[in-house]
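#onboarding

Welcome to the new folks! Below is a worked example of what a typical request in this channel looks like: someone posts a single protein sequence, and someone else replies with the predicted structure as tokens. Don't worry about understanding the tokens yet, we'll cover that in week two.

Example request:
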Amino acid sequence: MAVVELFNRPPPASTAPVIVPQPWISLEREPHLALGGNLVPPSLPNQAGSPALLPSAMASLRELSQPESAQLLLVMNEKDRAWAGLLLCGATLAEVRGISRQDLIEDGPFIQISGQHARRLRIPAALFRQLEAASTGVHDEGAELVKMPDSEDQLRRRLICAAHDAGLDDPAAVTPDVLRHTCIAYLVR
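Example response:
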């Protein structure tokens, strides 16, 4: 009887995740090919020469959740928290490097971003106070307020270490572009 039971047993239940294909998800490398060759979704008017909605480099960027972002900022030291916070507010690395005392606008609080994409960027009050405190010791009006690592490689290493300390999944995928992408995705939603 034991031999019969051994061979008549039902197969074990699978624990593999079930992936349900969605019509808007494509396995194509280029996102515009998923839209039938159009550069914009069919529901939007197709404008000649319009750029792709998502460049292929942005399609693979990870988006941090609110708890992940908070945990990441919590484990960072104060100097690194300033540039990471500005990236999470939507600034680019080049814009963060160029922020000076004259760019602080207390009414809001805002940071005045200059350059090609000049704008006022609303930032959290705690981050503004941190930048304001850093500006009190700076006597030169054009001096940079945000102390960033000297090289991009060093900046990425600090960010990966902070992501690892925060317990985030795949800490190597957390880059400065991911922080900015998280802000932009939040604003789009």
